[in-house]
Design brief:
The chain is an alpha+beta fold. It has 3 helices and 5 strands, in the order ββαβββαα. Helix content is 28%, strand content 25%.
Length: 155
């Protein structure tokens, strides 16, 4: 999951459903890809701790997915936290990456997965959740982490 912020607005996306209609709004997301970079071995110790390497991979995955799906390049990325998506069959950790986006930078070509995107203010985000236009559990969990951890963050 990636929360991209520009000014005080957050980026949300929607995919086209099977019947051609615009689907529900959600946050951009994706999964690890073998092209996601890891930290190089340290020149002083010869090794980088697994935790640091894993953190770097999570950040790289989030930034890659943002760019692939929306064309935006993120900066100042950080991990807000993780939550567990547990269907009782296969519990899975989901990381939430936060980044800033400079809208004056050119957008890149996308992979076509996303049909629509829009920037929303915190009040608009609250309304979309309250009205059921954002109902995805992963997106709601990521928004909760963002509200808790980024109230005083300044890009």
């Amino acid at each position: 999951m990636i929360i991209a912020q520009s000014g005080d607005e957050i980026l949300i996306v929607s995919k086209e459903s099977a019947n051609g209609a615009l689907g529900p709004w959600e946050l951009p997301r994706g999964s690890w890809d073998k092209t996601d970079t890891r930290l190089e071995p340290s020149s002083t110790t010869g090794l980088v701790s697994r935790a640091v390497s894993q953190k770097n991979t999570i950040l790289a995955t989030g930034l890659r997915e943002l760019r692939e799906e929306t064309g935006y390049s993120g900066k100042n990325a950080k991990i807000l936290g993780e939550f567990v998506s547990d269907s009782s069959l296969y519990p899975q950790k989901v990381a939430v990456v936060f980044c800033a986006v400079d809208l004056s930078c050119p957008r890149h070509e996308t992979d076509g997965e996303i049909s629509s995107s829009r920037w929303v203010s915190p009040n608009q985000l609250r309304s979309l959740v309250a009205e059921g236009h954002i109902a995805d559990g992963h997106t709601l969990s990521a928004i909760a982490l963002w509200l808790i951890r980024c109230a005083s963050w300044e890009p």
